[in-house]
Write a structure and sequence with these properties.
By secondary structure, the protein is of the alpha+beta class. The protein has eleven helices and ten strands. Bound molecules: 3,4-dihydroxyphenylalanine (DAH).
Length: about 350
């Protein structure tokens, strides 16, 4: 046995008997490295006579391959063993209880929707929903919107087709249409939801939230509307008295139409609702236009009623002192942690809304 063959036999048994990855890596460089025994042996090739070169190289390649196979088998075995040991050591019992609970927060918009639903449910309103993607008829035509109304403008509405027949709803009012078309009067519903308009600054975002209200029955008048809104605003802002005024306005779907302002004053940078001599517009409303009732298959000789539309985000900003509307939709965890609500503290009328 040559000196080289002896060394090879030695390395084979060393590789086979090693148990650590560092150990086997060292052996690898001693055997296959630049100055390893295989390479040194190959260097002898230059000195050999031509007729011996071929068989010498072939034999050496065979030895190299054998060693590589042994190395590969052993290193895989060591690595597998290491992984199994690691998994065994790091095993955790997922059935054990948590040491620390981190609870998520409810977004102020969701909180306000819950609060509003709670307030209106007390006086007999139920909650309806409609899709974000609406058709032209429900969003505009059925609501008595004239063909050339500015709200239909391409710049305001996100149309989803070239014919301008499908769009992201620009308000929650189409839920009025859907509700009346699928049922029979009386109707007493609110419909909270997402709405979309092409607008963006400190007080406008392309997606925002509205709440629609609709009460249709026999003999409903503006007095009922006023009483209903008065109750709602007092309950929502959790105050005993409010100042409220109706300003004449125009909406195609109501006649007469009004905008409602509430009185407030500022104290240490905080808005105090119900007192003071400043006015803030918070909603649009009116008596449902007979054309809308006709389009929704309701007999306007027998039934009439009121409708209103409120900006939910605006209410949340006012009640919880949040200045920038855009921050609502930035998904900043720190913001949510600060302004969000405890998910287990669901608003109810008897336990209090926001406390
Ligand atoms: N849809 C109106 C808007 O988005 C708001 C509104 C006004 C809704 C008057 C109503 C209403 O139901 O009666 O500006």
């Amino acid at each position: 046995m040559s000196e080289f063959e002896k060394k090879i036999a030695e390395y084979k048994s060393k590789i086979k008997s090693s148990s650590k990855i560092e150990e086997i890596d060292l052996l690898r460089s001693e055997v296959f490295g630049k100055n390893g025994i295989i390479n040194l042996e190959f260097k002898k090739l230059v000195e050999l006579p031509l007729e011996e070169k071929k068989s010498f190289a072939a034999n050496l390649n065979k030895i190299k391959q054998e060693l590589q196979d042994i190395y590969k088998t052993k290193s895989t075995e060591i690595l597998d063993k290491d992984i199994i040991e690691k998994v065994e050591k790091e095993k955790i019992d997922i059935t054990l209880p948590e040491k620390e609970f981190k609870i998520g927060k409810v977004h102020p918009v969701s909180q306000v929707i819950d609060e509003i639903s709670c307030i209106f449910s007390e006086i007999g309103f139920s909650v309806e929903e409609g899709p974000d993607v609406e058709n032209e008829y429900n969003n505009f035509t059925a609501l008595n919107t004239p063909e050339n109304h500015p709200a239909k403008d391409m710049h305001d509405t996100f149309y989803l087709d070239k014919d301008m027949k499908t769009m992201l709803r620009t308000h929650t009012s189409p839920v009025q249409v859907r509700t009346m078309l699928k049922g029979k009067p009386p109707f007493k519903i609110i419909a909270p939801g997402r709405t979309y308009r092409s607008d963006s600054d400190q007080t406008h975002t392309p997606m925002f939230h509205q709440l629609e209200g609709l009460h249709i029955d026999k003999g409903i008048n503006m007095g009922h509307l006023k009483g209903c809104l008065n109750y709602f605003i007092k309950e929502f802002f959790e105050v005993n008295k409010i100042k409220m005024r109706f300003r004449p306005s125009h909406f195609p779907f109501t006649e007469p139409s009004a905008e409602v302002d509430i009185g407030y004053r500022m104290e240490n940078n905080k808005i105090i609702i119900g007192e003071g001599d400043k006015w803030l517009e918070i909603l649009g409303c009116g008596m449902v236009h007979p054309n809308v009732l006709k389009n929704c298959k309701v007999d306007s000789k027998k039934f009439q009623g009121f409708a209103f539309g409120i900006g939910i985000d605006r209410l949340a900003m006012l009640k919880y002192g949040i200045n920038d509307l855009r921050s609502f939709f930035e998904c900043d965890y720190r913001w949510l942690n600060h302004y969000g609500f405890d998910p287990l503290d669901v608003p109810t009328n008897y336990r209090g809304l926001s406390r």
